[in-house]
Amino acid sequence: MGVIAVTFLALGCAALLSASSSAETNQKQAEAVHLLENRLLQILEELDDKTQQQDVDERVDTGGEEDALSIRGQPEDVLTRKQGCEGHQTGDQWGSSDHGNCICEAPDRLCYHVDCLLGSKIAKDSNDLWACEVVSSKRGITGSAVAMDKGMEQFTGREIFSIATGVFGVVSAIVGFTVDRIESAQTTDQLNEIQDQIRQLDRKVDELAQSVSDLQLGQEYLQQVILYGRDEMRLRNMLDTQAKMQISNGLYELPGKNVQAWADSVLSHGSDGVDQVLYNLLDMVKPHSGVFGGKSLMEICHLRLINGDNRDKYTEKMQQKAAQIYGLIGGGYSVWITALRIKGRASDIPAKTEEMKSELNTVGTSLLEYTKPKNWRTDWHCGSAYPADNGEAAKCHPDSKFPCCSPHNWCGNTADHCSCSGCVDYRAPQGKGSWRADLRCGAGFPAPNGQPAQCDPDGKYPCCAPSKWCGNTVAHCDCNDCVDYSSLGL
User: Fold this and answer.
1) Whose C-alpha in 76, 207, 263, 453 is 20 to 30 A from the C-alpha of 41?
2) pTM for the model
3) pLDDT at 395 over 80
């Protein structure tokens, strides 16, 4: 029975009950209404079950050896599990013969199918993964864009762009230029100015993707790795395609292709649309991401680097990863707004621009924490005789395998490093203290000392949000009910 039929049944029964109320007692009427409500709920539940099953049947064809797999609980976010790893080892990634990108999670492999946007073609990249290539545009970078690349750090008064340094500063300045102008751009010259920055951003993101391709997240996150790869590939394809567009008489053109169809694909509500792909990426990079068990993608990278063989490349790799993520998010929103403009939906652009600014501010503030000068050294020395990158006496990182400084100025994890007179243990106090290791805070989350948990005022996440999570974004530190413990002199 359809929803409309059920609705008419409800209305009809209600009318009959009303008409006969004079002949029945109030008690009987109440019982009849109760029975009717229960029956209607039963019908609607049966209808929902059938509809949901139809949706699943339409979305997923698991025939034979394949098994649909949803990691994030979102119906469109589906990987396919297939038998065997085709000769690969656990953690290996490769492009399969049927245009799928796979990762080995022995004994099986997880794959997603690569579909390229209109105007691009599928091809293998240097890592043997399928990617989407776009035919190059003849239009080059204008002088203004080149000048920006040489003087990024001085561009704009926005706090994040003035603080960011290195390659992160370069990328954030390109994104900032676009943010400031994308809503008001109308003329061909103005739109081409934006396009120049998109092309610059596209090149930077591609370069950074290669630079961090060796940054592995570990075998405990294989499913997340392949999902992140899928979302990154899709955003890069969108950005690549827009970068190759030309503008004539105020209109976007994709030589030899239907730009309207491209915009429809970008704005689609499926798993490959920019809405869902950006949502996935933002969910991965925000603090306390549910995708990585309460950690963000950057936190996982941080932990891998600080305890890995590439510890000496920590600053370089974290800068590159932060810049890549920021560029992907900024580029994704730019693509979104361009698609809205192509479809004639100019009235939707102001709200999307504000959303872009808000998300970039939140993400940028979080990413900055991983690009600041280190207060620890890669050679495991510590103490006043050994200055860190920030110019202060080096500490031992509490997340590293050697979190304690001995009187002999070496980081380690033995009693001679952590428990002696003159030892300094940089980890959070065990069994006492005012904050929790899981970053929860506020009423309902007692600290080891038995009181409502605070946030570590000297730590990475010093502020307690109304959601009772410690963090360092505006939503944690600067709202009405936020508590910034770093400002309280604790």
Assistant:
1) 76
2) 0.67
3) yes
